[in-house]
Amino acid sequence: MVNKYPWQQGVSLLVLTTVLSGCAAFGPDHTPANLLTPAQLSLPATQGKMPEAGWWQQLNDPTLNKLIDTAVARSPSLQQAQNRLNEAKGELGLSESHLGPQVNLSATDDRQLYSANGIFGAEPAFAGHYINDYTLTLNASWEIDFWGKNRAQIKAALGEMRAAMLETQQAQLVLTQAVIGQYTAIQLQQQQLQINQARIRLADTRIQLMKARVSAGILSADTVFQVQTARAALEAQNASIKGDIQRSRHALAALTGQTPTALDTLTVPDLAPAPEMDGARLSLDLLGRRPDIASQRAQVESMAETVTAAKAAFYPNISISAFAGVNSLAYGTLFQHASRIADFQPALTLPIFNSGELRSNLHVQQARYDQAVNSYNQSILDGLRDAADAMTGEQQAKAQLQQANLGYRASTRSADAMTLRLKAGMVNKLDVLDSQDAVLAQRSTELNAVANQRLAWAKLNTALGGGELASPTTR
């Protein structure tokens, strides 16, 4: 008897296999690792001041901005991160391709010599003859994603792509901080060199005056030796600074993807403090702003989807394949109506016994998920520590700079007063030169404080995420 409703058989078969699939157990219960919660971190929910996008531009230094742009464009490390992002995009495309039908055209021309002693040996038309077989078909297949395995794989690939994108942002952030560090070093070294040159000129003047007083019997010769020793130390320090400048130029050239001598003629402006960053505080919002932490979170989300896909593999797989075309032993009759061929083949695959392959794969994916969670939790703790250290460092650097400013202003007022006293005949020229040297020494201390404050400012911007992140990619 012919069944008038063949679809009923298909539904019945689907129900039956779904029931049977319950026998394919996931194995021992698994308790997944837990993400750190806001309560465990004990952080305020209020948002503090966070870095702005392009935060380094607040330094108002076009030369530095250009170097950072060059570094981003040429850095091999950033290009490698971009390559990983492109790979993740390709993986996403592959996963998406599994969700839809596959269609391809196939054309074959098979020319075969049949043996007279073979299976067709009794057929005169085949035995000992070459036979041509022409086939042209349009093939289609579709795996129906009833259980969400393919959709989970797409979400997993999307998470990997977002993680790669965030890794690229983190690499750019670290590179930007490194460029600022080397650039600031060059600024500091060049100004320290100028200060030492000025102190050497003062020392030469002092030596001349002191030699005249030694000749007049007013001073002993050993006082001149002390100044000459200090001058020699300044000369030695200058030689060391010049070497440091060259090494800093080479390091900066490497960061910007250039040859070591490419920045030998680089001119930099005088060192100036970075703008203050008041209001920065640790908060829950920080966790979503740091690219490295956000990347780890994307990895967790991706691994959660791979676990879902691994579980879906335990259920029946339903697919449909079909082809339609023509086949003939002679090319002249290939496109005749009688040469038509067609096939429609629904298929259902039910995992019953696979020697533990599905369970092992599920356990692997669950273990990887746990690893991703623990890595994320550790990245949170490390990130919060780095941010806390950066905030402390920035506050200390700011306080040190304030004290250095006070010291420099005090030494300047003292030198001005000494000049007035010289005009009044209350002190001699050597006293004035000593006060002027003290001003230069204090200025050197102030410059070190300015450089430390700029580096601490850059580190804090980096530790707080370096600006707004791109919105998650959605499909």
For this structure, the CATH topology of the domain at 32-99 and 149-181 and 275-315 and 360-463 is: Outer membrane efflux proteins (OEP)
Q: Which CATH architecture of the domain at 32-99 and 149-181 and 275-315 and 360-463?
A: Up-down Bundle
Distance N to C terminus:
49 Å
Unreliable spans: 1-8, 19-23, 469-475
Shape: elongated
Largest sheet: 4 strands, antiparallel
- H/E element string? HHHHEEHHHHEEHH
Can you tell me the CATH class of the domain at 32-99 and 149-181 and 275-315 and 360-463? Mainly Alpha
How would you classify the helix and strand content by structural class? alpha+beta
Rg is 38 Å
Give the CATH H-level superfamily of the domain at 32-99 and 149-181 and 275-315 and 360-463. Answer: Outer membrane efflux proteins (OEP)
β-strand number: 4
Strand content: 5-15%
Overall mean confidence score, pLDDT: 81
Strand order in space, largest sheet: 1-2-3-4
How would you summarize the topology of this molecule?
Blueprint: H1 6-21, H2 38-41, H3 62-74, H4 76-97, E1 102-113, E2 130-144, H5 149-215, H6 221-255, H7 284-287, H8 291-312, E3 317-328, E4 340-349, H9 357-423, H10 429-463
Antiparallel strand pairs: 1-2, 2-3, 3-4
Written account of the structure:
By secondary structure, the chain is an alpha+beta fold. Among the domains are: about 30-100 and about 150-180 and about 275-315 and about 360-465, Up-down Bundle (Outer membrane efflux proteins (OEP)); about 100-145 and about 315-350, Outer membrane efflux proteins (OEP) (Single Sheet). About 60% of the residues lie in helices and about 10% in strands. It contains ten helices and four strands, in the order H-H-H-H-E-E-H-H-H-H-E-E-H-H. It has helices at about 5-20, 40, 60-75, 75-95, 150-215, 220-255, 285, 290-310, 355-425, 430-465; strands at about 100-115, 130-145, 315-330, 340-350. A four-stranded antiparallel sheet has the order 1-2-3-4, with no helix packed on it. Helix 4 runs antiparallel to helix 5 (about 150-215) and helix 9 (about 355-425) runs antiparallel to helix 10. The radius of gyration is 38 Å and the shape is elongated. The model is unreliable at about 1-10, about 20-25 and about 470-475 (pLDDT under 50).
